[in-house]
């Protein structure tokens, strides 16, 4: 498709969806590998769009809107090679012009991310592709806006006060809007930690929190290895305490069903006075029963196969147990089931992040 024709179709679709045309500054579709982009608004597309993006590329777009505004990024089309952990092809979005800035998210697959908001007038996008599979890439619209003027559009931000509150847009008058992404970056002094408590909580329910959710991370970026929990439903999570002096709270809603939202409070306190609330990632090991001493065999036992020298074989299974033995299944950080070199998503429900199982759903 000719890029100019595609831009026209995209503009019509945007108008029908949002009731207004994009800014008059949106005069072209930038389908190239990176660059510096300035202005009130504009379109960005992956290289060679609408054809597949090329292999072995690292493209960086630096977006700058006028001073006093923030950047709002909305994806119109998204098709990047899918991987459970986004290890091969992916798009990173940063809250600033450096990849050392706070990362607002890493995305791959075909599900369009929600709207992403910066806390300043700068945002960076970095797309990486390997030598393997590819998709059509992405098309995104960026807009500059005045923060906190329209609560339905803007949310999140950096919070450095000793205490404060977090709430979804429109709370408590009506449901939060569809298709938004909010990130609250809470910072405490170096010798303190952050305690987060939810007063009210009502986020679209799903067994795996796939659509609308609240995700909480130690530190300042959406790193799955530092994720403390992922919540949805209508039961408030138990209070959460950070391990260090930084906590990131991310709220995402998709483009369909919405709910009331949430209201949360945070406060900082000295680390020595707090008792960390840990979210168990694995169940505790059961206590092994005491075994009676076995009599010393009078005959030499048969040689066990497939054992390394010096390794004693384990106890022989009781009759009827052999049929229940199976090979262990390896899983990745997000529960992906490994089969050869492929990862098969394995969905599982983990309830509550503390020993009290009254909390909201969490996908650890």
Automatic annotation (TrEMBL):
Residues 280-364 are annotated as: Disordered. InterPro entries: CUB_dom, Sperma_CUB_dom_sf. Residues 33-145, 155-269 form the CUB domain. Keywords: Disulfide bond, Repeat, Signal. GO terms for biological process: proteolysis. Disulfide bonds join 155-182. Residues 1-19 form the signal peptide. This is Procollagen C-endopeptidase enhancer. The gene is PCOLCE.
């Amino acid at each position: 498709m000719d890029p100019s024709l595609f831009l026209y179709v995209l503009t019509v679709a945007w108008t029908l969806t949002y009731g207004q045309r994009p800014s008059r500054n949106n005069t072209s579709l930038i389908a190239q590998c990176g660059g510096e982009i300035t202005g009130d608004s504009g379109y960005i597309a992956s290289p060679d769009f609408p054809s597949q993006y090329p292999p072995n590329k690292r493209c960086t777009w630096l977006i700058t809107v006028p001073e006093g505004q923030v950047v709002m990024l909305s994806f119109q089309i998204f098709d990047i090679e899918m991987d459970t952990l986004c290890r091969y092809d992916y798009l990173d979005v940063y809250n600033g012009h450096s990849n050392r800035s706070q990362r607002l998210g890493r995305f791959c697959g075909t599900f369009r991310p929600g709207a992403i908001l910066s806390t300043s007038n700068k945002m960076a996008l970095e797309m990486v592709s390997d030598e393997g599979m590819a998709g059509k890439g992405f098309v995104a619209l960026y807009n500059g806006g005045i923060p906190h003027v329209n609560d339905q559009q803007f949310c999140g931000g950096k919070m450095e006060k000793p205490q404060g509150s977090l709430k979804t847009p429109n709370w408590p008058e009506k449901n939060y809007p569809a298709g938004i992404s909010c990130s609250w970056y809470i910072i405490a002094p170096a010798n303190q930690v952050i305690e987060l408590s939810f007063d009210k909580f009502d986020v679209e329910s799903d067994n795996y929190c796939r659509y609308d959710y609240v995700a909480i991370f130690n530190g300042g970026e959406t790193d799955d290895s530092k994720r403390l929990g992922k919540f949805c439903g209508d039961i408030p999570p138990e209070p959460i305490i950070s391990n260090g002096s930084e906590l990131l709270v991310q709220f995402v809603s998709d483009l369909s069903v919405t709910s009331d939202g949430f209201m949360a409070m945070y406060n900082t306190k000295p680390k020595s006075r707090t008792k960390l609330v840990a979210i168990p990632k694995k169940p505790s090991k059961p206590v092994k029963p005491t075994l009676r001493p076995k009599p010393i065999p009078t005959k030499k036992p048969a040689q066990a196969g497939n054992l390394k020298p010096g390794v004693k074989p384990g106890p022989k299974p009781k009759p009827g147990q052999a049929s229940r033995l199976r090979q262990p299944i390896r899983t990745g950080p997000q529960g992906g089931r490994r089969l050869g070199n492929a990862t098969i998503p394995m969905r599982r429900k983990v309830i509550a992040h503390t020993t009290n199982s009254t909390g909201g759903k969490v996908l650890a």
